[in-house]
Specification:
Layout (H helix, E strand, L loop, with lengths): L1 H14 L6 E7 L2 E6 L3 E2 L2 H7 L8 E4 L6 E8 L7 H15 L2 E12 L2 E12 L12 E12 L2 E10 L3 H13 L2 E2 L1
Antiparallel strand pairs: 1-2, 2-10, 3-4, 4-5, 5-9, 6-7, 7-8, 8-9
Organism: Adhaeribacter arboris
Protein name: DUF1795 domain-containing protein
């Protein structure tokens, strides 16, 4: 009986880290999206550890469990909005080169709230160095990355979580990404 109650509590605890109801969030004066109510602003130390880059993201949010992130970055771009299909030809190989293995779920140029986005949805894995004696299991992530051009800048919206959480987060992740509005 004691074992049963412990197992039930453990399963309930795992379920409590799932996606919650979405609430509107203003990222900048002209960018909004919807995020689960338990998401908060990611601390700078965590941003530096998870997303090391020359430029700090415009915004980074993480769930209460710390496993699920939504990040918004920007970089200067000479491309125009009409160039998203061309960008697709550059970004797909770039994504593939960052990981040991990539399984694309979808890649497309689509309209979200009246704006064109280049979208990549995929599961990636990074395998430990084959030359190591004590190999670790591959790190697998589920990611949706959306790209758009705004005022000579490439805006990148990224959702990611461990691949084992994909079944419970995929629908919510797509809702989050479809809620992005740029005015």
């Amino acid at each position: 009986m004691k074992h049963f109650l412990f197992s039930l509590a453990f399963i309930f605890g795992l379920c409590s880290f799932g996606p919650g109801k979405l609430k509107p969030v203003k990222i900048t004066k002209n960018i909004t999206t919807s995020l689960p109510a338990d998401f908060g602003i990611m601390p700078d130390e965590l941003i530096a550890a998870r997303y090391p880059a020359q430029r700090k993201p415009i915004a980074a949010y993480t769930g209460a469990n710390g496993f699920v992130d939504v990040v918004v970055t920007e970089k200067p771009s000479t491309f125009a909005k009409k160039d998203l299909p061309l960008l697709q030809k550059f970004y797909k190989p770039a994504i593939m080169s960052m990981y040991s293995e990539v399984q694309f779920i979808r890649e497309e140029v689509t309209t979200v709230n009246g704006r064109e986005f280049l979208v990549f949805e995929f599961v990636s894995s990074v395998k430990d160095d084959a030359k190591k004696k004590n190999k670790l299991a591959p790190i697998q992530k589920y990611t949706i990355a959306q790209y758009t051009i705004e005022n000579d800048k490439l805006l990148i919206f990224t959702f990611n979580c461990p691949a084992n959480l994909k079944p419970e987060w995929q629908v919510t992740a797509n809702k989050i990404m479809r809620s992005i509005k740029i005015s």
